[in-house]
Amino acid sequence: MAVFPLPQLEDNAVLLPSSQTNSTQPQLCDVWRDIQGAHNWNGLLDPMVPNLKAEALRYGNLAQLCYDAFDGKSYSKNYGTCYHSKRDLFNKMGMSESGYQVTKYVYANTNLLNQVFGEKPKDQGVWLGFIAVCTDPNEIRRLGRRDIVIAWRGTQTGEEWIEDLRNILVPTRLSYRCKRTGKNQEHHFADGVLIERGFLSCYTSTVRHRQGAAGATVNISTRDLVVSEIERLIQVYEKEMDNLSITFTGHSLGAALATLSAYDIKQMLCTKHNFHQIPVTVFAFASPRVGNLAFAKRVEEIGVKVLRFVNKRDLVPKVPGVCMNENVGCLSKLLHWLPWTYFHVGFELPLHNNSPFIHS
Q1: What's the pLDDT band for 168 if we cut at 50, 70, 90?
Q2: CB 119 within 8 A of CB 155
Q3: How many domains does one find in the chain?
Q4: What is the CA radius of gyration of the chain?
Q5: 3-state secondary structure the chain
Q6: 2, part of any domain
Q7: Assigned domain for 1 exists
């Protein structure tokens, strides 16, 4: 499988391969919290240190895998599915040495994907990514922790979906099961937090899902699939809480869903005793804006670390909010309450020919 285009650079410039590293660099297992953004990547980006470069490429390859493993041929009888089973995914896609094991496939409602993002509809949900956990002892030692990764697929229709983006911000109310009472309690993200309606609808859309190999088919939202699986994995590895991380990755639409789901998961962790310290990181490639100023502030407030890789000529990171965004300055902050004023989250790493870590 080809190395993920992070994203395609000007004049065919590419990131230096991870093999070109400084022999004096610290081992990843000793600095993994910094690489995951514990100190906001201070001193690691300009130039990008080899450990971070290698991790960005690794998570980028996982995002690329979501494209490569998806049957997007409209004439195929298996359209909308992954080419391979959970057990065989990494082996069949040339990543047998990844050290990860897929535990859950993620699906989204195809009617919504058709209406908003231009993908062909299908009776049942289409494959949108996977959840995996690092299980190989050698890889766990190299990483310095056990890592849970959630990789989201972008749309197969290129940039055409931008024209149909709903481009309206809406409030969201999500509930989490209270550990003390066992009941669902509605949790408001924060006062004034708004999310782009198309991304939120995709994340909360309902799909038909089979429980187990011979289980009954039930209606469940994409969001519930993700949250329930992350909760399950955290309980399985609860004794490793001090050396556990959750990492989200995706490209384009996938990057937006990675950001939204990372925020949702971190909010869930904050409601549970001793779970709030688990680091949650997003490696987002060519991500559009996801929400408003209150959303961006809340992402930072609860400790979600977002690193966005952006090609300065790419259109996707400039939407939605082409006119009203973080670059407008004071005006956008004064009008942050409008349902079309967007702000990027986290830290941006622009990719261009003059970047010190780019090799032409």
Answers
A1: confident
A2: yes
A3: 1
A4: 19
A5: CCCCCCCCCHHHCEECCCCCCCCCCCCHHHHHHHHCCCCCCCCCECCECHHHHHHHHHHHHHHHHHHHCECCCCCCCCCCCECCCCCCHHHHCCCCCCCEEEEEEEEECHHHHHHHHCCCCCCCCEEEEEEEEECCHHHHHHHCCEEEEEEECCCCCCCHHHHHCCCCEECCEEEEECCCCCCEEEEECCCCCCEEHHHHHHHHCEEEEECCCCCCEEEEEHHHHHHHHHHHHHHHCHHHHHHEEEEEEEECHHHHHHHHHHHHHHHHHHCCCCCCCCCEEEEEECCCCCECHHHHHHHHHHCEEEEEEEECCCCHHHCCCCCCCHHHCHHHHHCCCCCCCCECCCEEEEECCCCCCEEC
A6: no
A7: no
Q: Are 148 and 133 in contact (CB under 8 A)?
A: yes
In tens, the pLDDT along 207-245 reads 876 666 555 677 889 999 999 999 999 999 999 999 999
CA 35/CA 25 separation, integer angstroms: 13
Can you tell me which residue has the tokens 């004049």? Answer: 11
Strand 126-134 to strand 100-108: parallel, antiparallel, or no bridges (unpaired)?
A: antiparallel
Identify residue 198 by its one-letter amino acid code: G
- Does residue 143 form part of some domain? yes
pLDDT per residue as tens digits for the range 188-207 = 545 688 999 888 988 998 88
Specify the amino acid at residue 222: T
Q: Please tell me the distance from the alpha carbon of residue 58 to that of residue 269, in angstroms, as a whole number.
A: 25
pTM confidence score? 0.85
One-letter identity of residue 130: F
| 2 vs 4: CA distance, rounded Å | 6
Tell me if 16 is assigned to some domain: no
Residue-range definition of the domain harbouring residue 353: 31-359
* CATH number (domain holding residue 351): 3.40.50.1820
